[in-house]
Amino acid sequence: MNYTTEKNGIQIEQTADFNPTHTLNCGQLFRYFENNGNYTVLSKDRKAEIGKTDGGYFIATDDPSYFVRYFDLDRDYGAIKAKVVDNDVMARAVDFGGGIRILRQDFAEAVIEFIISANNNIPRIKGIINKMCVSLGENMGDYYAFPTLTKIASKPASFYSEMGAGYRDSYIVDTAKKLLDTDIDELLGLPTDELQRKLLSFKGVGPKVADCILLFGAGRGDVFPVDTWMEKVYADYYGELTGNKEIRRFFLNRYGEYSGYAQQYLFYYKRVLESNFKDKNV
DNA sequence: TTCCAGGGATATA
DNA sequence: TATATCCATGGA
């Protein structure tokens, strides 16, 4: 993909492989908001503002190199699409959400946020995370950073239930403490199956949340998060429902190292198609 | 009022 | 290993 970095941002040339609406609304991150057709994206203690230009998009940020990696700008999504389009459904999904990028999010932030996401809805997830940032995160001027693990671990579970986290309150504290005692760089060096086993040992992390962390927070494409939407996709387009574990195995066998990308195209397509979710500025 | 949300922990067999 | 039940909360 053609882009150029400047000291205050990234200029992206118009392409079918980059669309912020697709990328931000496919359920992979929770710290973003839209205003007047522009998007603000927050990651750790950093901020990016995406705006449309004549020839594409401009991502305004103090840290261009961080967001080049974050938006996965050096990966060839055209090649990935060619790999995953193997039937009519995938063709429609890739055509519909062709501007999706799988974000390289911060690992620890992804762990905490996807623990909160379990059996929850996206507006509420965003609200809980925002309250955490406002109350525990560093004040960056016009936004708040995601709290450090030390800050998160320093509060009792009741602190998070008061923010609406419900029964996930103790999971947040337990896992933050466990992550503090973990060498995260060492974790990120593990092969996917070993890292998955580690993740499953954290409170509040089951198969689906572990896959989301692997895909969005550890850059692993060889996973396939199965949630309620993927159950619908499988039942409607692929075959008889035989359980999430079997659905996951089916798609992993089919798409291999590109499974995570296939999953995101399918998720976005199905969710926008069949929910009251209103897609703006496509 | 009931159902659902990007499910997981726990008990049980 | 596989299945059943319970779990806070808020919007539809």
Q: What does it look like?
A:
The protein is α+β, with helices and mostly antiparallel strands and 282 residues long. 50% of the residues lie in helices and 11% in strands. It has 15 helices and six strands. Strands 1-2-6-5-4-3 form a six-stranded antiparallel beta sheet. A hairpin with a 2-residue loop joins β3 and β4. α11 packs across α12 and α14 crosses α15. The longest helix is centred in the last third of the chain and has 16 residues. It is globular. The relative contact order is 0.14. The C terminus is likely disordered. It binds a DNA duplex (13 and 12 nucleotides) through α5, α6, α12 and α13.
Quick recap:
The protein is of the alpha+beta class. The protein has 15 helices and six strands.
Lay out the secondary structure.
Blueprint: E1 3-6, E2 9-13, H1 20-24, E3 32-35, E4 38-43, E5 46-53, E6 56-60, H2 64-70, H3 77-84, H4 88-96, H5 107-117, H6 122-136, H7 149-153, H8 157-161, H9 169-180, H10 184-188, H11 192-200, H12 207-217, H13 228-238, H14 244-255, H15 259-274
Antiparallel strand pairs: 1-2, 2-6, 3-4, 4-5, 5-6
Helix pairs in contact: 4-15, 5-9, 5-12, 11-12, 13-15, 14-15
The protein binds a DNA duplex (13 and 12 nucleotides) through residues 27-28, 114-115, 117-125, 127, 161, 164-169, 171, 203-209, 212, 225-230, 243-244, 267, 271, 276.
